[in-house]
Amino acid sequence: MKLIIGNWKMNPESPVLAKNLFAQTAKIKVPKGVKLGVAVPYIHLGDLPKADLLVGAQDVSAFDGVGAHTGQISVAMLKKSGVKFAIIGHSERRQELNEDDAVVAKKCMACAGRGVLPILCVGEPLAARQKGESEAVEFVRYQLEKVFSQRRYIPKELVVAYEPFWAISTARDKQKITPEVALRMMNEIRAWLEKRSGQKGWTIIYGGSVSPENAGNFINLGDGALVGAASLDPKKMLRIIKALK
Fold first, then answer.
1. Contact status, residue 160 vs residue 122, Cβ threshold 8 Å
2. Residue-wise pLDDT tens digits, 37-68
3. Residue 42 is part of a domain; what is its CATH number?
4. For residue 168, what pLDDT is reported?
5. pLDDT at 171
6. How many domains does the chain have?
């Protein structure tokens, strides 16, 4: 099974535009064995029409249920809104909001077994990558260990997205990543998950400036992709999906 997730980020501005983008994305014909989803801003969740798309959130609170947590949205709330997954630990949140590994681990725990699949983003900053591949691998392993120290996850409970900080389109120090580098890291992640859990069958996707132009090089490295800016254009999403093998 391949998983393609579009992350709309802080887009679009109005409910009308959100409905239109969602409707156009829902028209994309997805091949057998592929699941397509979109992570939308909280404010648009209640406005989306029913469609054969996985609807997700771009974050979730580490606190569960309801309570005195101003500005927070819990897993319970997301589930009641029909949300199927939540992106956790995206590099933009880690960098812009100083979201650390401990908070990311708590958010994954909040989702575990609650009907909202956590898509855990892991990846190294440019400083770690520049010190060498072994340093980058250790950085990512540490991120994974912080999450698994809270719970022994099984494959159906967690998706991992490899998202190198320095390769995403919004990175200030953006650098190009080669498919070979991405594949080696994704293989390291898979090996770590299998050893830590004692199970195979993990879903590992790539997220780092995936576009129609480079999709053929990256989307087949693992089990799919986390798509950012290109997900705001259904025609680009279609081209990305067509790159699947």
1. yes
2. 999 999 999 999 989 999 999 999 999 999 99
3. 3.20.20.70
4. 77
5. 65
6. 1
The CA-atom distances, in angstroms, between 7 and each of 126, 131, 154 are 22, 30, 24
Rg over alpha carbons for the chain, rounded to the nearest Å, is: 17
Dump pLDDT digits (tens) for 169-211: 766 677 889 999 999 999 999 999 999 999 999 999 999 889 9
Residue 175, pLDDT score: 84
Query: Which tokens in the block code for residue 127?
Result: 């400083």
> Residue 79: which domain range?
2-242
For the range 210-213, what are the long-range contacts, defined as Cβ-Cβ under 8 Å and sequence gap of 24 or more? Answer: 210/240, 211/236, 211/240, 212/236, 212/239, 212/240, 212/243
Question: Tokens in use for 75?
Answer: 């897993």
Q: What gap in Å lies between CA 117 and CA 130, rounded to an integer?
A: 33
Residue 70: which residues within 8 A CB-CB, separation 6 or more?
Answer: none
Structure tokens at 40: 């939308």
How many Å apart are CA 184 and CA 27, to the nearest integer? 34
Tokens in use for 233? 């254009």
Active site residues per annotation: 90, 163
**CA–CA dist 139, 100 (Å, integer):** 13
